[in-house]
Amino acid sequence: KSPMQMQCAAEPATLAAHRTAGGAWMELRYSVECGTSWARMWGTRVGDRIEMTAGGRDGRAGVARSAEVQNTIDADSYVYTPMTAAHPGTVVRACFRPAAGGEGDCFEARVAK
Questions:
Q1: pLDDT tens sequence across 81-90
Q2: What values do phi and psi take at 73, rounded to 5?
Q3: Terminal CA-to-CA distance of the chain, rounded, Å?
Q4: Which CATH class is domain 13-110?
């Protein structure tokens, strides 16, 4: 579900931020109230994509969530992945996939205990 529509984005923690080689920005976000995490990006181009996973405490990868910049309106604002459950200790990872192809950028953070 959307962090904006579910009102989980009111006061989220930013777990980590990363600037891609192409100049786009990504953040991994976490809501204590909702027990969820998501990724967002900005400074993007149409066709850019962000993918986010949240691994369990046992190290297994969770379900991937993704979002793509669909148009110039998206490119001029934040684009969010759907949320996924995340608990303290969970490792969340985001990867940026540029529309132009080539190498993507990935980074990760752990939800604080």
A1: 999 989 899 9
A2: -65, -45
A3: 24
A4: mainly beta
